[in-house]
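Forgive a beginner's question, but might I ask you for the amino acids of a protein and the tokens describing how it folds?
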Amino acid sequence: MILPIVAYGDPVLRKEAEEISKDYPKLKEVLENMWETMYNAAGVGLAAPQVGLPIRVFLVDTEPFSDDPDLTAEEQKQLADFKQTFINAEIVEETGDEWSFNEGCLSIPNVREDVFRPEKVTIAYQDENFKEHTKTFDGLIARVIQHEYDHIEGILFTDKISGLKKRLIKNKLSNISKGKTNVDYRMRFPDAKGRR
């Protein structure tokens, strides 16, 4: 089932999400709905708070990045094959030089900004079967993981841009929270007077 994506301004996007256990109600269904919602909105990642659930769950599928002609064949294959569920994730370490990439967010439609992040991330997490992993990722895979991880910490990519850029997009963000934005996927707006 395609769920509405929570828009900028909703308090759930600012909460530090809670860990869950294997017996979280209807987890399999929650994950299926999240994948369907993410693909419907043409996203490469989606965190549970973005569908209104303050739990430490996010999904990543970097396949859409794999057709970039500037990437090596190996990098394209790596991106094409990466699809992962992250449950109860905790970043262990971020290393390497910070690099800039133009990020967007399904909860903040039609806003894109350059964000600097370290090139590598080591993360401990459980998969959809609650099997534990600790892995290191780099490049675009690390970038998407870092972006989605921020969501379960109550952080948005717009928090990582300069004060000047924040002022320049202030009206856009205000309009998004009021439902004044054009998107081709379902959204839930906090200030839109009942509009869903």
Remarks:
- The first strand starts at residue 5 and ends at 6.
- The first helix runs from residue 27 to 40.
- The beta strands are 5-6, 45-47, 57-61, 83-105, 108-126, 132-138, 187-188.
- The helical segments are 27-40, 73-81, 139-152, 163-177.
